[in-house]
Known about the structure:
By secondary structure, this protein is mainly beta.
Amino acid sequence: MPFTSTRVFHPRWAQHLASVADDTHNVTVKITAGSTGGGWSPTSGATQPTVTVLHEGPAIIEYDAQSGAHNTVLADQQVVTRTVTVGLGRTAPVIPQGARVTVTAVDDNTLPALVGRVFVVAAVVAPSHGVEQTLSCVDDQTNQPS
């Protein structure tokens, strides 16, 4: 029986284990926020979109096999969405809801078809075990680059 002052786990165990989670990252992503299309100014005409890069770096992507695909009709168009979990490193900045996650590269263990996919952040999950930042995203499979 250990002494009552003895800890079984290191007080900063999540910080120590974060490198293990980082080693599982198999894609590179670019996360942006802001307008994806230009606007219009009454005085100067067309305006350029304002997109801010929030984070570029390694990540892990996992499709939710439990929920599957969601089919719906919006504006007389068939829309198919899937829930995707994106895991970022512990040191990544906090990503806001509505940001766009674009897969820019994959490693040899990942299907190349993932490159170019764009996911929209639906929620930022704050787990009590802070090994990585987890984003719950939506993959609109109708409007993806081919």
